[in-house]
Every structure is written in C-alpha cells, then in structure tokens.
Design brief:
By secondary structure, the protein is an alpha/beta fold. The protein is built from ten helices and 19 strands. It has helices at about 20-40, 60-75, 140-145, 180-185, 260-270, 285-300, 320-325, 330-345, 350-360, 370-389, and strands at about 1-5, 45-50, 80, 110, 115-120, 125, 155-160, 165, 175, 190-195, 200, 205-210, 225-230, 240-245, 250-255, 275-280, 285, 305-310, 315. The strands form five sheets. A six-stranded mixed β-sheet has the order 4-3-2-1-13-14, with helices on one face. A six-stranded mixed β-sheet has the order 5-6-7-10-12-11, covered by helices on one side. Strand 5 (about 115-120) and strand 6 form a beta hairpin. Helix 1 (about 20-40) packs parallel to helix 2, helix 5 (about 260-270) runs parallel beside helix 6 (about 285-300) and helix 8 (about 330-345) packs antiparallel against helix 10.
Amino acid sequence: MRLLHSADWQIGARFRQFGAQAGRLREARVRTLRRVLEMAAGRHADALLIAGDLFEDHQIEPAAVAEVFDLFASHDAVPIFILPGNHDPIGSPSAIWARRPFVSPPAHVKIFATAEAVPLAGGFLIANPLTQKQSALDPSLRLADLARERPAGAIKIGMTHGSPAIGGMHQPDDFPIALDAAARAGLDFLALGHWHSALSLDGGRMLMAGTPEPTDFAERGSGSVHEIEIERAGAVPKITALPCGEMQWRHLESELATGDELLAQLAACDPARTVVRVTLGGLAAPEAAAAWGARARELAAAFAASDFRDETTPDFTAGELAELQRDHPLLTQVLDDLNVIATNVPALPRHELEGLEKRVGCAPGELTAPLVEAARRVLMRELREATAC
C-alpha cells in the first residue's frame, strides 16, 4: 500500500500580520495543493490522506472553497480522503461540509462525517473526524474499536486529528492522543494532523504530518507531504518526506554592528519564494537604527511577505551621557560599571569572577556577559524614561 499523508493545509488562512501581502500566501497554498495532487497521481498512490484542517475555518470566502473543490474534481486519478479537524469540524449546519459544493463531493473524494472503516487497496482506512473545536477525549480510542472488527491479516491505516500527549507540549482539552495509539489500536500506521511541525512517534507507526505549506517561523519539518509505503500487515512503514511547499519562512536576527551581514543574507534569498522577518536588536543610536531599518525594509518589500521589527535599545549620545553624568552621577557610574563588566567577564580569571559574583549577589556561573548586557539595557531604558519625565 502506498499513501500520501498530509494535514493542516489551512486553506483560506488570513495572515493578517502581513497586510496586503497576505493574498500571496493564500494563493501559494492552493498552488501547493495542486502540486501535491499531481504528485499523488505521478507516484501512483493508492490514496491522498488529508488528516484534518483542510480549511482555516468555516467562514472563509466561498470562492476559495469552490477553487479547492474544482481542484479535487479535476484530479480524479487518486482517491482523496478528507478528515474534518478542529479548525473545520463536521456536524454544524453552517460547516463547509454541509454546504455546496462539498455537500456533494466527487465520487473519488470521501469526507468522513463519522468514525468508520472503509476498504482501501486490499486493506482498510479507519478514520475518526472531529465534531468540535476542543475536547479532552483521545480521538484515537474509537479507531481501536473499529480496527478490532477488521480481518487480522489486512493492512489497517488509522487517521485522526489531535495533540500527541507529550508532557508540557499540549493542552488537556486539545484532543490528547496517547503516544502508543497506533500500537494500542493494532494499526499498521496512524496518520495524524494538528501540529504544524512534523513528528514521528510510536516506533515509526504514527506520524504528525506537519503543514505542507509553512505558516510560521517556528515550525520544524513543515513544507512536505509524506509517502507511506507498507509492504504487508505488521511491517514497519517506510516513510519518505516529499518537499512540496512553495514558500520558505526565514527569521533573520542581527545587531546593528553585524547588520550588513544580515542585509547580505536578505539579498541572497529568493524574494518570490521567501517570507521573511527581520529583527534588529542590541544597542544602537536611534538615527543609525532608523537608517539601517530603512535599508532593510526596502530590501524586504520585494519579498512574498515581510515583517520588520526594531527591538534595539537606544544608546546614549555623547551629549546625553554628559547630561547624565551631571544630573545622575551615581546611575551613570553604575552604567559605566556594567559596560566594563560586560566587556571583561569573558576574560576574567575564575577567582576574580567568583569574587565579582559574590559582590553582586549572583550564584556561581550566573554572571555572564549576556546577563550583564541585559541589565545594562534595562538600566538604560529606565534612565531614558526618567530623563523624559
């Protein structure tokens, strides 16, 4: 059995943080969906699985819904199995699935309205869709009940949507799924959706697909669909990530002192296929930060989408420092001391560093150049606010 496993397409996502550029990202998702449909046919897949959240929600533009429907209708070489997720749950009369055109899908498209098992390439696909946005129940439990009713020698593929129950990485009402859900249900493979980063679990028998088209700078393993090949019942699946995403999301960070390196990195990107966030930090004179920011924004404007963030701490000019020394001599001395410490901490002998840590009340090993630099920035902000008042 050969499948293409995908999830979390989020068609219609609004990307409001990118303003007028958001439309480019919505269009890219539809182009990627077309690419994956062609990929499924070209690789002679037995099915394309969409394990939840095909759509961002039930309020997206009807034209976007119709465009996806027409794409599916025109690519009938491979069966398509759609599982409603927490963003697009089934059951409501206002749901996309209950309205035209998806209320009457093409013959090769199956939309799961309830938990059920359907024949697939000599085996079975066993799916449990979501009917609400939140729940503390494990949606994979129903798969186990259905799998027990299938013949022992048949390949059994499960599909549902929720959060792997990893401590500290999920909410109790976010459809927690046991980390051994595939083995517990007797499945050869369990196709999951919900997280936008890819994650393999349960000895390679359970896979969070990740979004095929990236949606955030923090994602890992997004931008692909996964080919799942299973030779026979009980065999470990062979899983191959197939890159398909159109856009790359890059977060570039720099201080003004190394800003030219960041500008060079920007210039090396393919603007038509890159979503970029530029963050400028560190100490900088306001005029210098503004000039650098103007150059960065000019370069970033050519990108598919861009976001510029100035997180610099304004440095004091020579004139301002002279005023501070006159009006706030004690605070100015503290500022100078912090500057000296930040510069010298990395080179201090251990015994001198330990003595310094005792004097400032730090535990051994806590006094580092970044910590001192952070303290200096906080003090500078406080001084600026004080002088402004």
